[in-house]
Amino acid sequence: MKIGILGGGQLGRMFIQNALNYDDEFHVLDPNSDCSCAYISHFSQGNFNDYEDVLAFGQDKDVISIEIEHVNVDALFELEKQGKKVIPSAEIIKTIQQKILQKEFYKKHNIPSPDFQIISNVSEATFALPFVQKLNTGGYDGKGVQVIKAENDLKNLWDAPSVLESLVDIDKELSIIIAKNENGETKTFPVTEMVADEKLNLLDFNICPADISKDVQSQIDAIAEKFINAANSAGLFAIELFLDKNGKVWVNETAPRLHNSGHQTQEGNANSQFEQFYRTLKNLPLADTDAFGFSGMLNLVGEQNYSGKVIYEGLEEVLKLPKTYVHLYGKTETKPGRKMGHINVLANSREELLEKLNHIKTLVRVIA
Ligand code: ADP
């Protein structure tokens, strides 16, 4: 089967790496001829945001999917009209691309998400302080999101269509990955805790399984089920969640694709998110997702003040450690905050896992 993926970054790379266990052809569309997938796929250079490029790319593919959600969705609607298989659907990608549509979707389907106001410009902002402003489009990895705490910060409001959302008093950031095939079968991965790097506003550690109560687990199960029914599309989705200090779970946002919060599934679970995603594209029975024990992930991100040809300092020390797995993304140039790779770790307890992750963090630096 000819599988076409819009985007040639690390998510696509790890998907192809896994899917080479099977007999398919992997095609990738990306503007950068040196992207993470360039040398391991049938590579087409082009812009996944361009209508004509996406339409042309999709013509001879049996299924078209994404590894980034900022793609030209009109072309995907057209491909669907032509009878092509697009997973996830153009409709759900469009909904998720725009924070305003995404929030309205949660509200319509009774999926708990923080209260909000939609504005098209600053003059409309009347939402109670403190709140978080999220640009309707163009946000990524924490960019396009700002906290407005007091009257005094109102002058910083971005004058653009946005969502103003209540500030949640966050206890934990969690994620659940759920997959659905075209037969309607669904399966989730164990809930993962995401620990953010305050400076970079980027995900730093994943810890799986999350340390949560039965009640929190059942709130999350209910959310995942409501989401997958409402989305009405095959595919793999990562639902990012907040657990607040009162024990209530809220949806932050959803990614209609493979996700950083699922990287430890590569060695930590019976099957990875990459395997599961492959199965959704081919409408195969979904894979079992059982965790082997405790697993975690540490992102390797470009250190501040270093740009240029990448050096992974300390990596050999990491390779000496047991049950520790290095994944690099094939990016030659590092930049501050750029995701260059990750390290997965297995452990027998949460304490051991945290100790290992913190130790590895002191060993390795991504510099130039
Ligand atoms: P992005 O799509 O850029 O990752 P997010 O919407 O996930 O943006 O926001 C980035 C981070 O900002 C979140 O991980 C969380 O730490 C914080 N944040 C977002 N929304 C809220 C909120 N309503 N209350 C408190 N913190 C929030």
Structural class: alpha+beta
CATH architecture of the largest domain: 2-Layer Sandwich
Bulk shape:
globular
Low-pLDDT residue spans: none
Count of domain modules: 4
Alpha-carbon distance between the two ends: 40 Å
Which whole number gives the mean pLDDT?
96
Characterize this entry briefly:
This protein is α+β, with helices and mostly antiparallel strands and 368 residues long. Helix content is 26%, strand content 31%.
Written account of the structure:
It is a single chain. This protein is of the alpha+beta class. The chain folds into four domains: 2-86, Rossmann fold, CATH 3.40.50; 115-166, Dna Ligase, domain 1; 168-292, D-amino Acid Aminotransferase, Chain A, domain 1; 293-368, D-amino Acid Aminotransferase, Chain A, domain 1. Helix content is 26%, strand content 31%. It has ten helices and 22 strands. The strands form five sheets. Strands 10, 11, 12, 13, 14, 15, 16, 19 and 21 form a nine-stranded antiparallel sheet that branches. It has a five-stranded parallel sheet with strand order 3-2-1-4-5, covered by helices on one side. Helix 1 packs across helix 8, helix 2 (51-58) packs parallel to helix 3 (73-81) and helix 3 (73-81) packs antiparallel against helix 4. The two termini are 40 Å apart. 43% of the residues are buried. Adenosine-5'-diphosphate binds next to strand 7, strand 9, strand 10 and strand 15.
Question: What order do the helices and strands come in, and which of them pair?
Answer:
Elements lengths: L1 E5 L3 H10 L5 E6 L11 E4 L5 H8 L4 E4 L6 H9 L3 E2 L3 H8 L1 H10 L7 E4 L11 E5 L9 E4 L13 E5 L3 E11 L5 E3 L3 E6 L4 E7 L5 H18 L3 E10 L4 E7 L9 H4 L4 H9 L12 E8 L6 E2 L1 E3 L1 H5 L4 E5 L4 E2 L4 E9 L2 H14 L1 E3 L1
Parallel strand pairs: 1-2, 1-4, 2-3, 4-5
Antiparallel strand pairs: 6-9, 7-8, 7-9, 10-11, 10-12, 10-14, 12-13, 13-16, 14-15, 16-21, 17-20, 18-22, 19-21
Bound molecules: adenosine-5'-diphosphate.
